[in-house]
Each structure stands twice: as structure tokens, then as C-alpha cells.
Amino acid sequence: MNVFTIRDRWMNALARSSIRRAFSSGIGMVSGGFLIILVLTAIFAPWITPFDYAAQNLANSNAPPGWPHLLGTDEFGRDVLSRVIYGARTSLSVSATAIAISVSVGMTLGAAAGYFGGAFERMVMTVVDLTWSFPDILIALIFVAILGPGLTSTTFAIAIAYLAQFTRLTRAQIVRLKQETFIEATINLGARPAHILLRHLLPNAVAPVIVAGMLAIGDGIILEATLGFFGLGAQPPTPSWGAMMSSGSAQLFLSPWILIFPGVAVAVTVIAINLFGDELIRALDIRDRMREA
Amino acid sequence: MSALLEVRNLTKRFSSGGGLFRKARSMHAVNNVSFDLPKGRIIGVVGESGCGKSTLARLILRLIEPSGGEVRFSGEDLLAKRPAEMRCLRARMQMVFQDPYSAIDPRYTIARAVSEPFTVQGIKPDGIMSNTVAQLLEMVGLNPGLSTSYPHQLSGGQKQRVGIARALALRPTLLVLDEPTASLDVSVQAQIITLLEELRGEFGLTYLFISHDLGLVKYFCDEILVMYLGRIVEFLPATGAAARHPYTQTLMDSTFEPDPKRRRTIEPLLGEVPSPFDLPPGCAFAERCPHATSICRVEMPILLADGEHRTACHNPI
Amino acid sequence: MSILEVRDLGVAFGPIHPLSGVNFSIKKGETLGIVGESGSGKSLTAMSIMGLLPLFGGRITSGSINFDGQDLTKLTDRAWRKLRGGRIGLITQNPMTSLNPLQKIGPQVDEVAILHLGMSRAQARTRTVEILGTLRIPEPEATCNRYPHQMSGGMKQRIVIAMALAAKPDALIADEPTTALDVTVQAQIIRLLDDLVKKRDLALVLITHDMSVIAQTCDKVVVMYAGRAIEQGPVATIFESPHHPYTQALIGCIPHGLAENERLNRIKGTVPTVMNYPKGCPFHPRCPRAATICSTTQPQFASVGESSAACHFVIGDAS
Which residue positions in chain C have pLDDT lower than 50? Predict the structure, then answer.
């Protein structure tokens, strides 16, 4: 590691200006801004929420939106707004953790498969493709059956469900990059495989995988909500948008707000992630690289 | 005293296709190539697309594994080296690539790219790295201020100079140049070629110069190897030597001069280059050769020496 | 009588003016070479003559392009389509992109005669086979049934030439027709174009970066630099006594045909990009003869002997 690598990482103009570009369009500003607010809200939840999300007040159950409960209360008299905010925390942290695990493992497998090729590549890709062939819910149910319902199962389920995507994407990038002249030039300098992988291949392969990861967080949120809807995700009293929608669906005609607000939260969050992801793809100009394999 | 580079019977076979119902086809990208490159000389390897010259360059540097033959660099057998030894040896034999646009990692600054040889080989430069980088850039005629720029901010000619600086960072003895000026304007080409001449004199370098431009090779090189479909068809010991192989003659006739008084008469060339997967028996050039006789279609001519001049032809000119 | 005459052509893309002050004329049976390095504007000139600028977002801002009496800058779209591929044929650099990979070769060439000459399919096919034969494509009938990817680069380029010839053009514009081809194939194509010009009395505008090709095949030359024509004249004069410093320097950069101890010439600096054309003469930052006036005033074209050059200090100027 010489002086120039540190300086370059600090000053990587290419990446910084791309993120700036992504924010510069109207869609980018709105969706990106929303996501930033969402993340901040989730982080500062304990200080922002007007009420304790678990505090029950049966006297005030099923209250419509108004004051002081801006989004109403649920069947136990708990403040819907506070539960939606804490639900954001649950959804985002579970999905982000799961995708982070998935991206790390997927990139490692994909890079190794792409770089070494041959029988190793075939073996890795076959195993990974097997995970791809299972529907997400089924994977989740298998984990629930083994580990019991809860956030751990949900996290593993999301991680496994998207593993194939990141492995394939990384491998495709590595295979494409291996043909580049600068890789041949680096081999010609006498570089070891580790140097080539870590200093040239992975840094150039990372961009589409990161963006795919971001988009997958949106999918992960939906999967978490789905599991929560069936009571298999976050267990009470931890709020989960899915679980809220589940109990809210029973009250649909009496207190529709219990179902609507978490539902809207999921929808708007995932839309914002997808819109911002698109803007990022456009800014980084990697539309062609987002295709797998 | 042995030559810096000794190549003997170098061969590279590629196969393609081959499934359940179809036999795999194979072709020889490089077929039985032998030559010596003495220290301090420049040998040009000239030929058209598909002749194997780029593959030859990569075989010599062992960027591709040969199917057969031998390469000796400074007397050492390259093909017997283990990977770690080979990596060490690479510091002494470098390459300048054809495409300056993709030869540098787009995420590396020029400084990082030029200092990478030191990083990779674990060698410390004399003095501070940034000074060494500045010196290398000046050596190739670039402003040291460019060291903080990224490749996309440089012109093609500047990028190619960076490639040369990087190749020379560890003071190699052999430089293989794979069409280094093919994608450059002619005025930029002149700058790069002149630079290469100066560097050769200054550092006592030996060049293997690959090109499709026979005129350029005649100007720059001392000796010329002409390749056709993987084989050497002629070895010219001096650039002024007359062609003896009909293919070399065709190449010379097709290389125009910037002088309207010396226009060439272009003879029609019959036929097409045969597919390397489907070579006819005998000389690969026979079906297009104006001098072909019956033996040419049957028997492969071997490279025969006449003094220093070597030709693989049954009916040399 | 010139068949094609370009006067003071200027082109713009938005606020940028990559081309200005281009003048030349060509008669039938003549070959005019337009030579320049990258960014000189030579391809843009070809695009302008063919009316293809709007396709890329450009427009002609000044000057006229006179083809057989008609001013092409004033043509409607409809009239352009009749002319393009008809009386003026275009041969581009990359035959791979000129030919439809999904369509057989025969129908692609037939289409030209059908559209421009109003022939029937059968008549067009006969004509296609005839032209392919003239261009020495082996087995013309069988070739009509093949796809482009089954042909070699040189053959594909001949097919592109066949398409350009199918409608009996008076003029051909060839934009770097041999740059992507091997040297021996290039020689064959150049010879082919030479034959066509002589036998069919065509006017050929040959655009290339290769001065050696110009020397081999052209009658007249226009030398371009940074979007301007800076010298033009008969090919012998241009090479024997170039009047513009750039022309002289450029010829000296070519490694072909040099004597044993002659070294390559070098031009210091680099070609300017369209974003920063220098003021005054575009070549002045790199010119060994430059003086103050060169950086302030655009030199006008002036005749020197048989050719003309745009330079304040032309080489060989007796006055």
C-alpha cells in the first residue's frame, strides 16, 4: 500500500461525482431525500416517536387519526405512528443486514468463481443456482421450521434468497473484466492473483453489485413484510409493517388506518429505493452491467 | 554469446466446438516458430490479422501457455519456471499494449499506475515514490503534473506514453511492443516511435516490435519476421532486403508510399485467406500465390536459410 | 465541369462549430482525397455532403454544396432520400455496421435498384449478380443467399461498394473505406475503386487519414486540420512542394519510403479538440514558423502555384 492508494481512495472523484449526479435530477432528489429522511427516522426513532410503541391503552383503542395520535391507534390502543416508525427500524435493519451478508458472501463466491473458472466455477454456480430455484417464501419457511419464527430466520431467509443474484452479477463482472487489457498488463507486471483480485477486479466490479444490493433491500423489505403478515417474522411486541398489516386487515372496515399506513409505508419505501436505484444506475452509467451473467 | 531471446519451435493450438455430435476443431495460432533476438536489436514481426503475431508476443512473455516449443530468456528456460519465479522474472521482460484506452485501470491515477510495478514486485524505488514517478513521466515526455490525473483525462498518445513509462519502471531488458501505435494518429505515432528510439539508446533495450504496417517496421526495426497463418514465411536480415517469399512481395506491393511518383501496380490477389481450422495440405499461401506449382499444394515448405536470409517457399523469387 | 462543388461549408452542432471554410470541387472521372488526422472534420464533411448531419444533431450554417447544378443544402428530406444511395453513393468505414446482419446479402443489394431505379425484384437480382461479378466476388449467385457474417471483411466491403454502385451513381463518397481492413485487402479495394472511377467515369471523394493511400490513388487533395481545410491542390504538388507547414510536417511523419538515414519528423504538441480550437490559425501553437499574426488572424486561402494554402507564411512563397 503506497501513498497513492490512500490518496486515491479519499479522492475517488468518479464515485463522488456520480452520487452527486444521481441526486441532481428531480426524481433523484425526491427519492434520495426521502430515503435519507427514512434512515434518519429509523436511527433516531427513540427520540422522535411521540409514544412508546408498546404502550397499550385499551380505553383509546381503534381511535381514528387525529390529535394526539396522528395516525390513529390500533386495537390495543397503541399509537400507529410510533409503530410505523419503529416498523421502519425493523424492516430496514433486518433487510439491510441480510443484504449486507448476502452481498459479502455473494461477491466472494462470485469473484472466486469468475477468477478461477473451470470446475470450481461450475460447482459454485450450480450450488448457487439451486438457491435461486427455490421461491423466497419457501426458503423462509424452511428457516422458520428450523430456527423458529423471528428476525433471525427472516434475516437468513432474505440473505439466502438473494445470494444467487449477487454471485452471478459479480461473476459476470469478473469474467468481463478479465478480458480487459489492464488486467493482462497487471499480470505482466508480475502481480499475484490476490493483488489482481483485490486491487483491480473487485474495485471495478463493485458498482453494479452495490446498486443491485440497494435495490434488493427493497425486495427484502417486502419479503420481511410478507413473513410478518403471516406472523412468521418479527414477533410481538416488536412492530413490523407486515404484522401490522396482518392485524389491520382484520379491522379493515372498522379501522382501515391500521392496515393502510404500514402498507403505504412499505410501498413508498420500496418505490423510493427503486427510483433512486435507477437514478444511481444512470449516473454511474452501468445499465449494461446490471444484467446478470 | 547467446541471444537475449531464443525461441524454438513455439506452437500454440486452440480448439473450439466439440460437443456430443460434433468433433472439436483445432487450429494453430502459432505454428513451429523459431528465431533469435540478439541483445540490443529490434526485430519486427509483421503480418495481417490472423497470422498469430499477437499470440506470439503473448507466448514469449508466457501470458498464454504454449502447446509446445521452448523460450529461453537470457539463457533461462521460461517454460520451466514455476509461477513465483515467473512473476519475479517478469520485471525484466515487459510489454507495451496495443490499446492505450484499456491498458490502464480507469480507477487508477497515473501516479498509481506508473508506481504499480514497484508495488507488485515489492521493490522500493531509489528515493521517494513520487519523485520516481515524476522522473518516469518526464522520461517519456510527459508533464509530471499529470500524475494526479485519471486515464480518461489523457489523450491516446499520452496514455501510450504512460504505458511505456510503466513498462520501463523496473528497467527491463526486453520490451515487447504489440502494435503500440496502431490506434494513434500518424503525427502521434511519429512522436512515440521517436521516443522509443531514444529510450532504446539510453537504456540499451531490446525490442520485439509487432505490427501490421510493413513500412513502419522497415523504418524502425533491424530485422523482420513475416508471418502468415501462424508460421514464419520469411526472415529478412535487413530492412532493405528484397522479398523472396511471394507473400512478403504482396505485402510490400500493398504498402503504399507517400509519393505519387512511386505508385504501385496492384496485382489482383486471388482467393481468400483460408480458415485456420481448415488448412489445405502443403503451403497455406499456395491457392493465392502467383508462383504456385504442384509441389506447393502438397508439401509444406520449410524455412531454409540462404546466409542470414530465410524463406519458407518452394519457388522463392 | 465539376459534378460536385463545395463552397465555404460551415457546420455546427449546437453552439460548437467543428467545421468551417471548406472548399473543393471534383469532376467525373476524378478522385479527390480529403486527408486529415482525428478531429480534423473530414468525416463531418462526408456527412454534410450526404445530408446526414441532422441525424447526429448537426446543421449546415454556411456555404453551399452544389451537385450537378442543385444546391444540396436546400434540399427537402424527400429529395435527399432520392439522391442518397442513388446518384451519390456512400461507402463507410465499417462494413459490419453497413450491412443488416439479419438479412441475406442478395435482398440488401437488390433493394437499392428497386428503390432508386424502380426495377422489379427479378431485374434487380440480375443487376446485383452482375455487379457482384464485376467486383470479383466469387460465386455471385450463391453469395446472394449468404448472410453478412459468413463473408470476410474484404468481401463485406465489396458488397457495400456494390450497394453504392447499384443505382448507377455519378459520385461516390468513401469515408475511410479501408481503415478496418488488412493491408493486402486494402490494396485490392483501392485498386477496385481506381478501376471503377476510370471505367464508369465516377467522381470519387476518398476520405482517409492515410497519406500513402492518397498518394497512391488521388488526383487532387484537400488537407484538413482542426475543422478547416488548410491546403489543397494536385496530388503531385502537395507531396513534392507542400506549401502549408502542417502538410509538410505531416508528410515527414510518415515512416514509409524513407531513406536509410532519414529520421521521422515530429510535430510538437497535440491535435486540438473541438472544444478548444485555437484562435487565428488552428495550427499556430504547433507551427515552427508561427508569428504573432498567426494567433490573432485566420489566414485566408491564397493560391501558390498550382495549389492553394491558408497560411500567413506559406512555404515556397516568392512574394
Answer: 318-319
